[in-house]
Design a protein that fits this description.
Elements: H1 3-17, E1 23-28, E2 40-45, H2 55-64, H3 66-83, H4 92-98, E3 104-111, H5 116-129, E4 130-137, H6 140-158, E5 169-171, H7 174-185
Parallel strand pairs: 3-4, 4-5
Antiparallel strand pairs: 1-2, 2-3
Helix pairs in contact: 1-7, 3-7, 5-6
């Protein structure tokens, strides 16, 4: 499967899992009225909060889909702790409350042939725009690079340097996501 085919596969699976909201593939969160950069995310689970706040709606969705989000958090925590045990694990409450005024419920970035600088941009976009951000590395080298980025941000925070918080960004391998959503959609 190519990254584009996988993106469409995820969109279809997420439509099954989230039947009452819009799910988009390769969608930008248009902000033309502000004349600012508008990133295109690979997969978005709505509803979209472009010019409004949907804090209570996303809070309700977090509770309604708690098992789903908790499962992804467990995968993320396992990935991170196997890489570097000094990186703090995430808890559901932390993810739920971190980016309350997000622009969408879930934002997914599938990262394939990109530089480390673009990797940072993808991580910031997924974390900044989604109540739950998911970073889905296409290859093991992108997976390792993302784990190193999280460790680097953690180091900067630990030594009291300026850093970026990624407390709602879940790093999930493609195989892990495929297995998880296949199992979840059959429950």
């Amino acid at each position: 499967m190519t990254p584009k085919e996988y993106q469409n596969y995820l969109k279809e699976k997420f439509i099954e899992i989230f039947p009452t909201v819009d799910v988009y593939a390769e969608k930008g969160l248009e902000t033309q009225q502000y004349n600012i950069y508008s990133p295109r995310l690979d997969v978005i689970v709505g509803p979209l909060a472009i010019d409004k706040r949907l804090i209570q709606e996303y809070d309700s969705m977090m509770e309604d889909y708690r098992n789903f989000i908790d499962g992804l958090i467990r995968i993320h925590n396992r990935n991170v702790s196997e890489f570097d045990s000094s990186i703090p694990t995430l808890r559901f409450e932390e993810v739920r409350n971190f980016n309350e005024n997000s622009r969408c419920f879930i934002s997914i970035e599938i990262e394939n042939n990109i530089s480390r600088k673009h990797l940072i941009g993808g991580a910031i976009n997924a974390s900044g725009l989604g109540r739950v951000g998911i970073f889905l590395p296409w290859s093991d080298d992108k997976f390792q690079a993302m784990l190193k980025l999280v460790a680097y941000f953690n180091f900067l925070k630990r030594v009291k340097n300026n850093s970026y918080e990624l407390r709602n960004l879940l790093i999930v391998k493609r195989e892990q996501m495929t297995d998880f959503i296949s199992d979840y959609s059959t429950e």
